[in-house]
Recover the amino acids of this structure.
């Protein structure tokens, strides 16, 4: 492997095919060996099947699969699932019903060579707050607790790649909100790359760094999250909750007005106070419908966050009264959804310099 | 009455228990792997045929089974001839022959519940075990078997109870040799034939109570919440 550049080792190359009676999977993409890569698409688009192929659970899979420096599958080789260093979190927790929580956690850990264990039992139990349920059997736990155990169980094999198949799909809204902070913590505290299957735009914008869009068994687009979210030729930019996700740094807190100031590409914004340390990296979400455009900064407005932007593209939306404007904000792009009438009134065209008045900015973590 | 109880020959009871115990052990040893193999994906028609053959004794009259076994094991049958050549003697009218017959006759009673247990088991837990580094054989022993425990228990109990209650096949192939093939059900038949109703009553009532207890215990295991914690 000495001929490979460090960049290749830091990537996963996925090129897999699977033939089923009414379904043909042909997925090809590259993704970084860090952060969260989300597989996003409608149900039936093959996201779960692709994840199962990566884990080796579909025997008929053809193609090649290279994770970092290691081949898991190619023309002459196909590792069986128990030889692939993955952690798999299923939609249903799939906990072993005949074992306690602690025995479930130890199942995979025991089968991982001691020299390869880098994630430890006590830390994982603390990370997912399982201390009080270790002696329980799975059928005594709530859905959210079961899923937390399943995540911990997968982590304890010290996987090189964590595969998560809509881990929140089978949960009610309250349990979902319960789990998301754990997933965000995982993201921040562990350096394991994650492939995360989801059809929820909200989960994707909260968790993903890299986005792979799938439809009818094929990859239709892939790239860095904000790049994909703001591409107006892709379906995400046309959703009701179309948004941009950009990262920023905490620069100061204002205790008088209870605000936190963030430096983002293209300017500084204020959001409701959150107790993050100064210079912490955070992620903010700006919904297209919360962005209005003006020719001047408009000092008399009640809107606090006004940023200078340049128009990159203008597209009519499914609703003919509306236009989707893609804007350059520093090195990033954001979206604005405004009426077509306003586009004419302000004489907006590609290249126009404008001020984006942002009504609301959500600080994700 | 008390005197009759004291006089009663308990040898057939022990013989029946011995026969049922050995038969159940052999049946489990064969039925578990067969049920697992039948449960795996693969050649449907071959599996269908083998499954059907193993289940045949369930619907065949015991006399038909006994008749063919007698021909097979008798001095002129192929197995009898083979045994003759190795100087092992005929299997017909021996305890070993009885065991073979019981094995065949009670096999489907164990196979069915075990097969059901594997079929209703969620595939997800086996797949989870695979992604947790467990090899196929490892996950069979650590996941599939424990999850199938209620089915295994039913299968073993049914095979055992069915062997105890077996009559027709034994009559055809075992005869009535005290200490060798004279099992409980045959002994009862004998007592009735010779009008010894008291002895027949004692053995029959014992059998009735035994059968009830077996089914009762089996049912309560199944109804117990958390049947995996046994």
């Amino acid at each position: 492997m000495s001929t490979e550049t460090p960049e290749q080792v830091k990537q996963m190359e996925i090129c897999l095919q699977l033939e089923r009676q009414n379904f043909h999977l042909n997925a090809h993409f590259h993704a970084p060996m860090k952060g969260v890569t989300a597989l996003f698409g409608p149900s039936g688009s093959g996201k779960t099947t692709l994840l199962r192929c990566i884990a080796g659970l579909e025997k008929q899979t053809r193609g090649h699969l290279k994770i970092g420096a290691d081949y898991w599958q190619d023309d002459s080789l196909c590792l069986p699932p128990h030889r692939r260093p993955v952690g798999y979190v299923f939609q249903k927790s799939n906990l072993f019903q005949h074992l306690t929580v602690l025995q479930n956690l130890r199942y995979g850990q025991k089968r991982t060579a001691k020299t390869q264990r880098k994630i430890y039992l006590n830390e994982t139990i603390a990370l997912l707050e399982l201390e009080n349920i270790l002696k329980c059997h799975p059928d005594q736990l709530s859905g959210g607790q079961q899923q937390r155990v399943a995540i911990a169980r997968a982590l304890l094999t010290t996987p090189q790649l964590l595969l998560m198949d809509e881990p929140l799909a089978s949960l009610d809204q309250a349990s979902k909100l319960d789990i998301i902070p754990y997933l965000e913590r995982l993201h921040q505290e562990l350096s394991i790359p994650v492939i995360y299957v989801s059809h929820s735009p909200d989960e994707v914008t909260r968790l993903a760094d890299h986005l792979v869009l799938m439809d009818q068994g094929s990859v239709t687009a892939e790239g860095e999250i904000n790049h994909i979210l703001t591409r107006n030729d892709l379906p995400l930019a046309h959703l009701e909750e179309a948004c941009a996700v950009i990262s920023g740094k905490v620069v100061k807190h204002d205790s008088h007005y209870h605000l936190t100031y963030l430096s983002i590409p293209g300017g500084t914004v204020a959001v409701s106070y959150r107790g993050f340390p100064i210079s912490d990296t955070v992620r903010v979400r700006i919904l297209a419908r919360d962005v209005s455009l003006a020719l001047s900064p408009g000092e008399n407005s009640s809107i606090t966050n006004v940023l200078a932007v340049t128009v990159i593209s203008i597209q009519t939306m499914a609703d003919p009264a509306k236009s989707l404007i893609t804007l350059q904000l520093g090195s990033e792009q954001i979206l604005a959804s405004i009426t077509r009438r306003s586009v004419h009134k302000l004489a907006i065209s590609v290249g126009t310099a404008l001020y984006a008045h942002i009504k609301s900015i959500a600080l994700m973590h | 009455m008390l005197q009759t109880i004291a006089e009663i020959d308990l040898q057939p009871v022990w013989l029946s228990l011995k026969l049922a115990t050995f038969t159940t052990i052999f049946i489990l040893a064969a039925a578990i792997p067969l049920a697992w193999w039948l449960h795996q994906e693969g050649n449907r028609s071959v599996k269908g045929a083998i499954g059907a053959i193993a289940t045949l004794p369930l619907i065949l009259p015991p006399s038909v089974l006994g008749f063919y076994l007698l021909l097979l094991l008798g001095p002129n049958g192929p197995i009898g001839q083979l045994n003759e050549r190795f100087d092992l003697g005929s299997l017909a009218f021996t305890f070993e022959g009885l065991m073979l017959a019981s094995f065949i006759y009670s096999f489907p009673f164990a196979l069915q519940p075990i097969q059901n247990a594997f079929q209703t088991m969620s595939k997800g837990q086996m797949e989870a075990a695979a992604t947790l580094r467990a090899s196929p054989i490892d996950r069979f022993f650590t996941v599939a078997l424990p999850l199938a425990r209620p089915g295994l228990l039913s299968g073993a109990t049914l095979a055992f109870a069915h062997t105890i209650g077996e009559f027709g096949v034994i009559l055809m192939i075992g005869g009535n040799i005290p200490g060798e093939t004279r099992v409980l059900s045959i002994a009862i038949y004998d007592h009735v034939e010779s009008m010894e109703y008291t002895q027949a009553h004692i053995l029959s009532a014992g059998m009735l109570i035994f059968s009830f207890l077996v089914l009762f215990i089996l049912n309560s295991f199944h109804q117990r919440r958390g049947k995996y914690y046994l």
About this structure: Chain B has a mean pLDDT of 86. Residues 12-120+149-222 of chain B form a domain with the MetI-like fold fold (CATH 1.10.3720.10).
